[in-house]
Design brief:
The protein has 735 residues and is an alpha/beta fold. Helix content is 48%, strand content 17%. Strand 18, helix 20 and strand 19 form a beta-alpha-beta unit. Helix 8 crosses helix 13 and helix 19 packs parallel to helix 20.
């Protein structure tokens, strides 16, 4: 494989480090050449590292002509651009060559020229247009990928890579006192040093670090702040230190000229307070030194920093929370060591230069395969984009499972609200009813997934059933393998619908994986004869969830005590609810008095379920909480894991509880609830038969030690069986 990299050559900072280290390692595996458009330190260092380098100085037109000649004579497989000038060059040359052009997006092009409006109007706009002409864009963090999705780029053409550092690099032999002496810093030997390395501009928001430090320093006299960097805001930052009364505890080191090893060896806590980031080297270099980081929750930082496990996170500009994080680390040496070791191990495993090189090679392989292969990836069709958190959780789970087969798999969703689906799930989406676009996507895809959820039913709407059957038929006509994925079946109340469903499924579906045995009974009853029909489980059961620290932080920020004892309610509107509302209230009061459990309402379809939750809560006469809308299934499962009990009509409330092994009682308004509850091994009461005493008895039984242990064993078994969903998809994809 031969790849030509284009870059202006005047780059510095993270982009320079990324490109040079990447090219050095790539050349051990492929032929990777470099073209720069000016002679500077970048090209000099590239040559010193043994990277084949050419410089095309002069005007833009001269560089464009010479680059075209280089591509014509170089027999390259891929052209890889970095930065605005290279992107524009690539965009103009792309139409002359039948090879893929890709660009690495090292930073947000809307912020690259912050404070320089003329440059933003010219270079920034041209860079944006050039990026749209690339075949693929490589984003240096998942958050940068999401930013481009929100700006209209196709998620299927956005790939992600993270900056890596060299963990074979030896630790510096210099002591803290010696290094402080070199830079003229006179901090006391027993200081606890907070450090931030950044250029002084608005995006890096060093001011928040100074404010956070000042708040923490009031309560810990040993704290000191070391700032490495310089820029336009220096005078303002020095003035802020004076204003906050911490100027004597802050040292401005300027740019560190002889490498950052001594800096990271000399600090105790690393700080990043940027308003926007991709994945800065400041976090991986600190991790290599075993230093914990307090960082703003931006860009790719949460990918390495798990709050409370490998570091601490706060919202941008929230200097008060940052101060609390700094103080917690300053006051606890054991915590600093634990988080520092944890972040070192994670960074070494996932963010080394070797892993970055492997990832880039995988991206090249993916790009070339897509360029030459007519079919790849999957189309998923379900009840997505309707605002139901349970269905959105299903989509999150299925997409994550497909990504275990190939992290870069092309995935397209059929959604009622494509804009929402793209924004929340970072997946390509087309609107229901756009059959011309759907046909085009199906002809490019290998697998069509119908599901999950109960799509084959005619209770909600007969037209929706016919729509889903039509998409199954269309997918088969377009040459896709078809799987009904972790789905429920029924009810089917009309004979015509039963016949039509059986006929379409028998003719078009290659494999069916069902979430419960009740659905299997219905498939047999209506005459489905597909050879491969398995009872597996709902894909949500094996969903990854956020950390307990993230759940606690969210709950605390919404005035919900994370250490409280709660019973979670997942209710929905249903005929007869008004009559049963009083019975549910009585049961909740008894549960509060007997078990000390405070009701916490978690609406799944927020707009529809919130009024029902408020109706029950309104007459309780005991403390209660209502969860705000999150649109984050992984966070909701983490919050559910903090509950002591769950009572739910909503199926996915019960599934969330199963993920966290929380004792549950189902209130069945539909056979899908009772069928799934029976499969999970949890008790279920017909909604029409709900009484206060009956519900109290079911809650008591579920909370008993015997009941909880039995449920735990059952959940573990079903989670293992559920993995057959993705194993079936993998086989159909030919992987």
């Amino acid at each position: 494989m031969r790849v030509l990299h284009l870059i202006s050559g005047g780059d510095s900072g993270g982009a320079k480090t990324h490109v040079l280290s990447l090219l050095r390692d790539l050349n051990d595996n492929i032929d990777a050449d470099l073209v720069c458009y000016m002679e500077a330190d970048f090209s000099k260092e590239a040559r010193e590292m043994g990277i084949p380098t050419r410089v095309f100085p002069g005007s833009f037109g001269v560089g464009l002509k010479k680059t075209r000649e280089a591509i014509e004579n170089g027999n390259y497989d891929i052209i890889h651009c970095h930065g605005s000038r290279a992107n524009l060059t690539g965009a103009l040359l792309k139409r002359h060559f039948d090879i893929p052009f890709i660009s690495t997006v090292h930073s947000d092009y809307k912020l690259d020229y912050l404070g320089r409006p003329l440059a933003a109007m010219t270079y920034g706009r041209l860079n944006k247009l050039a990026l749209h002409h690339m075949d693929y864009r490589v984003c240096v963090s998942d958050s940068m990928r999401q930013t481009l999705i929100d700006r209209g780029f196709d998620p299927n053409d956005l790939l992600t890579i993270y900056n890596g550092v060299d963990f074979s690099h030896p630790a510096p032999s210099i002591t803290r006192r010696e290094w402080f002496g070199k830079i003229g810093c006179d901090f006391p030997d027993d200081s606890i040093v907070l450090g931030i390395a950044a250029r002084f501009d608005a995006v890096k928001d060093v001011a928040t670090t100074i404010r956070g430090f000042a708040g923490a320093a009031e309560k810990n006299e040993r704290l000191r702040l070391l700032i490495a960097g310089d820029g336009m805001e220096r005078e303002m930052l020095e003035g802020l230190c004076e204003q906050l009364g911490v100027r004597d505890k802050v040292f401005f080191a300027g740019w560190i000229s002889d490498g950052m090893d001594g800096y990271y060896a000399s600090i105790d806590i690393n700080a990043i307070s940027s308003l926007s980031e991709t994945f800065p080297y400041a976090v991986t270099e600190a991790a290599r030194a075993g230093k914990p980081t307090v960082a703003s929750r931006v860009g790719g930082l949460p990918r390495l920093i798990t709050n409370g496990e490998t570091g601490m996170l706060f919202s941008p500009r929230d200097h008060e929370t940052m101060a609390r994080c700094i103080l917690a680390l300053a006051n606890d040496e054991a915590l600093r060591k634990r988080l520092g070791q944890a972040v070192y191990e994670k960074a070494k495993r996932e963010f080394s230069t070797e892993s970055t090189c492997r990832r880039q090679l995988k991206i090249y392989k993916t790009v070339l395969e897509r360029y030459s292969r007519p079919r790849s990836g999957a189309v998923i069709c379900g009840a997505y984009g309707h605002g139901n958190a349970g269905d959105e959780a299903l989509l999150t789970a299925i997409a994550a499972q497909l990504r275990t087969i190939d992290p870069d798999m092309r995935i397209t969703i059929v959604s009622k609200n494509p804009k929402h689906t793209k924004s929340v799930h970072a997946l390509s989406a087309i609107r229901r009813g756009q059959f011309i676009r759907l046909r085009r996507e199906l002809k490019r895809s290998k697998l069509f997934i119908s599901g999950g959820g109960s799509l084959i039913q005619d209770v909600t709407s007969r037209r929706s059933l016919w729509f889903y059957l039509h998409t199954i038929s269309l997918a088969k006509k377009c040459g896709c393998k078809v799987q009904m994925y972790g789905c429920g079946m029924g009810p089917l109340n009309y004979d015509y619908d039963r016949r039509r469903a059986a006929k379409t499924i028998n003719r078009c579906v290659d494999a069916i994986t069902l979430r419960d045995p009740l659905s299997l009974e219905l498939t047999r009853e209506i005459g489905v004869t597909v050879q491969e029909v398995l009872v597996t489980g709902d894909p949500v059961l094996n969903m990854h969830c956020r950390s307990d620290a993230d759940a606690a932080a969210f709950m605390r920020s919404h005035d919900i005590d994370p250490d409280g004892r709660y019973i979670c309610l997942g209710l929905r509107s249903w005929p007869g609810f008004d009559e049963k509302c009083g019975e549910i209230r009585k049961a909740l009061r008894a549960c509060y008095d007997k078990h000390g459990l405070t009701p916490l309402f978690m609406p799944m379809n927020y707009d529809l379920d919130l009024p029902v939750s408020e109706q029950v809560a309104g007459g309780l006469g005991i403390p209660f909480k209502i969860m705000p809308k999150t649109e984050d299934a992984e966070l909701e499962i983490a919050i559910m894991r903090q509950m002591k009990m769950c009572v739910a009509m909503r199926l996915h409330s019960l599934l969330y509880a199963a993920c966290g092994e929380v004792p549950s009682v189902g209130l069945s308004y539909d056979p899908k609830v009772s069928g799934c509850a029976q499969y999970l091994g949890i008790s279920c009461v017909d909604f029409d038969k709900v009484t206060a005493q009956g519900l109290i008895d079911e809650i008591d039984a579920a909370l008993s030690e015997t009941g909880a242990d039995m449920i735990s064993r059952r959940f573990e078994y079903i989670k293992n069986v559920e993995k057959m969903n993705i194993e079936t998809a993998k086989r159909l994809l030919g992987e």
